[in-house]
Automatic annotation (TrEMBL):
Pfam families: Voltage_CLC (PF00654). PANTHER family: CHLORIDE CHANNEL PROTEIN CLC-E, CHLORIDE TRANSPORTER. It is a multi-pass membrane protein. This is Chloride channel protein. Its main location: membrane. It comes from Kineothrix sedimenti. Coiled coil: none annotated. It comes from the Bacteria. The chain crosses the membrane at residues 12-39, 45-64, 140-165, 177-197, 218-236, 251-269, 290-309, 315-334, 341-361, 373-393. It is found in: Membrane. Keywords: Membrane, Transmembrane, Transmembrane helix.
């Protein structure tokens, strides 16, 4: 391919990124706003909803088996397509993953939302890419759609772009998709904001000064956050395997596990650990957590996702990281909100085995003046995660 062809293709991809961003941002806004409303309903009627999580899980899984085609593979479809599989990503994945996640959250599952948004954008992008006979078009538009979906939901376009570019293969950035991914991410963020989806942000007050002691504490936090992300990835994979070995019937598995999760969630502070975990993030930044919150959110999220419920891992990882950071702050003599913010980004980075995305999401959510601290803590967390990832199909650079 000569230089002119490369420029032409980049212009085509960037032009297609705009309608792709509009579509992904619109769907993400609808999904996100309804999800927040569903969370409020669940919190109001926990005693009437949480005991039926297992029964609802059976309905979700049966629907996937009966009508979902290959949609039940979820994020795995995106990784397979990104690594060169010729299989299509069915567009029916979009309504299935949206409705499945809404039901999971309504009845008290501890799950995220980014997996849904990334799948929405990825399915749209991959479908669009298959309609154009351009070299690498399917992969570039898949990544562009993934960035658009992430950005449309979280409204952090820089983090969304680099998450899409680095998540498929560790240590490799797909620079061919950079310009279209950025275009789609900013478009999706603008569209979802215009449709009323608010961005979460928190301005950290820098009531401390840099010192060698502070640097040591930040690096120590990075080590601990890296271990926490590693443990989450490890136990998520091990628990999924254990559930599948002990309860081979997936419908029976989700019924038993879901019912147990719902009932235990009621016993643990009336659903405090259900849903996204944004309640815990808010309390972490405002000094309102219990010292055990990170452990319980960790446990309920691993169990929910291992049982087969829909959602994602990232927002619960934000919650686990923030609560763990707030817990460690008192032990290390650090400002609680500052330590919670570092954990918010670094545990996500460790568990997803990504580096640039968590650094940028820290800067976009908590302010660019904190960028040096996020670079230090996320960098060490990335090194200390042992190359494990919540995404089993993520490739390792040889």
């Amino acid at each position: 391919m000569n230089y002119r062809e490369k420029i032409r293709n980049q212009l085509i991809f960037t032009g297609l990124a705009i309608p792709l961003g509009i579509a992904a941002g619109s769907i993400a806004a609808l999904f996100g706003r309804i999800l927040l409303y569903i969370g409020n309903i669940r919190d109001e009627y926990v005693y009437f909803l949480l005991p039926f999580l297992g029964a609802v899980g059976v309905f979700i899984l049966w629907s996937y088996q009966k009508f979902g085609d290959r949609s039940s593979k979820g994020m795995a479809l995106l990784f397979e397509a990104g690594h060169g599989s010729k299989e299509t990503i069915p567009l029916r994945l979009i309504p299935f993953v949206i409705i499945g996640t809404w039901l999971t959250h309504l009845f008290g599952g501890s799950a995220g939302r980014e997996g849904v948004a990334v799948q929405i954008g990825g399915a749209l992008g991959h479908t669009l890419g298959r309609r154009f006979s351009i070299e690498s078009g399917e992969k570039i538009l898949l990544l562009t759609g993934m960035a658009a979906g992430f950005s449309g939901l979280f409204r952090t376009p820089l983090a969304a772009t680099f998450f899409a570019l680095e998540v498929l293969t560790v240590g490799v950035l797909e620079y061919k998709a950079l310009l279209p991914a950025l275009t789609a991410a900013f478009t999706a963020s603008y569209i979802s904001g215009a449709l009323g989806l608010e961005k979460f942000s928190y301005v950290l007050s820098k009531n401390f000064s840099f010192s060698p002691s502070l640097l040591f504490k930040i690096l120590f936090l990075g080590f601990l956050f890296g271990i926490m992300g590693r443990l989450f990835s490890y136990f998520l994979h091990r628990t999924k395997k254990l559930f599948s070995e002990k309860l081979k019937n997936p419908l029976l598995r989700i019924l038993i596990a879901g019912t147990a999760i719902g009932l235990f969630s009621l016993l643990c502070f009336q659903g405090r650990y259900s849903g996204l975990g944004t309640n815990l993030i808010s309390m972490s930044l405002n000094e309102g957590i219990y010292s055990w919150d990170f452990a319980f959110k960790f446990l309920f999220t691993v169990l929910t996702l291992s049982a087969g419920f829909q959602g994602g891992e990232v927002t619960p990882l934000f919650s686990i990281g923030a609560t763990f950071g707030a817990f460690l702050a008192s032990l290390l003599g650090l400002p609680i909100a500052f330590s919670a913010a570092l954990g918010y980004a670094a545990v996500f980075g460790s568990a997803s085995n990504t580096l640039l995305a968590p650094i940028l999401i820290g800067a976009e959510v908590f302010g660019p003046e904190m960028l040096p601290y996020f670079i230090a803590v996320c960098g060490l967390a990335y090194i200390c995660n042992g190359n494990l990832s919540i995404y089993p199909l993520q490739k390792k650079k040889k």
